[in-house]
Amino acid sequence: MPKKIRLGILGGGGDSLIGILHRVAAQINDNYELVGAVFSSNFEKNKAFAQALNMPLERIYEDFKMFVEEEMKLPESERIRVCAVLTPNYLHHQMALELFEKGFHVICEKPLTTSLEKAKALQKAHKKAGTVFALTHTYTGYPMVRQMREMIKSGALGKIHKVDVVYYQGWVNTVIHDEDKRSSVWRLDPEKAGISSCMGDIGVHAFNMLEYTTGLKVKSVLSDFNFLYQDNTMDLDGTVLIRLGDYAKGVVRASQIATGEENGLAISIYGEKAAFRWEQEKPNFLYLLSDSLPTQVYKPGHTYNSELSLDGTKLPAGHPEGIFDAMANIYKGVAKAVRGQKYNDGEFPTMLDGVRGMNFIEATVASHRGGNVWVDLE
């Protein structure tokens, strides 16, 4: 087996859901060794968290600047090769840019940046660096999402007519109705989160899922947002009509105030011959619908699935796999790319997906602010 890839993590300390998701995912396929980090901007908390993980402290750095400086002093054979950026949105650009300049490979949380302009700057820097970059649209790692993508590519649905993607959560309800609480959450702070909360956090996942599975590109959007309170400048709920072509339309529905909802991402894709339906909370079931035949159910681990789907399946059929496994499949694809091995272009979202996501976020905000008008994507 190839030597493990040295991994560094920026952010994701404490009780961060994203932090544990990345750490576990990096370990699942035995491709990475976590050797250095800046888990927190508070150095004492940073060290305490590292000790809780039983990590040596000599490569637990005080801040990002020290992380880069000290790692660059090491010989290439010892230096961290891949850095995972798990910080709030406003830090992604600065960190990724410097990491590219120093030759690190980067795995970054979404959205890519806080603006399309910064996303394009990162795209340019990444092209110059020639390193591997992955954006963690985690749900693309599910075997049945990958199966859907491959079957659509092979023509299983025929010409696509309609796409309906929904991503409903209810967690913002716990803070939004209290003025003090809503001013203390970074995702509701435009200085840290960017111009959008709901579309920037979960709507962009729905957008990416749509383009990833169908292979189509969204051409224009028309959006309507809900903010709930006058002093809240960040969208909490939104409906976005989309145009994929002259005769292919769709809708993206996203909400952080959908009371009682947990992590309700689901997609339905309707074509001239058949349709697909998949739900993130029931990820092992992919439904193929037809006007003339009984509904078919595809499940992971069976030989009838595509190579891409099977490569992302770790257990025999009938054994549930979940979000840790989905994220692990992205890390696995990055490992192949870093090692120069052959990989499918659907194994991890790229810089282009990040730029497309920022284009979507800005277009939806512009559409709402413009009075619910159609806005073209680049």
Task: Please summarize what this structure is.
Pfam families: GFO_IDH_MocA (PF01408), GFO_IDH_MocA_C3 (PF22725). The chain is of the alpha/beta class and 378 residues long.
Write the layout of secondary structure elements.
Elements: E1 5-11, H1 17-28, E2 32-38, H2 43-52, H3 64-73, E3 82-86, H4 92-101, E4 105-108, H5 116-129, E5 133-135, H6 143-153, E6 160-168, H7 173-176, H8 179-182, H9 190-193, H10 198-214, E7 220-226, E8 237-245, E9 248-255, E10 264-271, E11 275-279, E12 286-289, E13 296-298, H11 307-311, H12 323-338, H13 351-369, E14 375-376
Parallel strand pairs: 1-2, 1-3, 3-4, 4-5, 6-9
Antiparallel strand pairs: 6-10, 7-8, 7-14, 8-9, 10-11, 11-12, 12-13
How is this structure best described in words?
With 378 residues, the protein is an alpha/beta fold. It has two domains: 5-138, Rossmann fold (3-Layer(aba) Sandwich), CATH 3.40.50.720; 142-312 and 363-369, Dihydrodipicolinate Reductase, domain 2 (2-Layer Sandwich). 36% of the residues lie in helices and 21% in strands. It has 13 helices and 14 strands. Strand 4, helix 5 (116-129) and strand 5 (133-135) form a beta-alpha-beta unit. The longest helix is centred in the last third of the chain and has 19 residues, at 351-369. The termini are far apart. One of its GO terms (molecular function) is nucleotide binding. Residues 6-135 form the Gfo/Idh/MocA-like oxidoreductase N-terminal domain. InterPro entries: Gfo/Idh/MocA-like_OxRdtase_N, Gfo/Idh/MocA_oxidoreduct, GFO_IDH_MocA-like_dom, NAD(P)-bd_dom_sf. Residues 145-276 form the GFO/IDH/MocA-like oxidoreductase domain. It holds the Pfam family GFO_IDH_MocA.
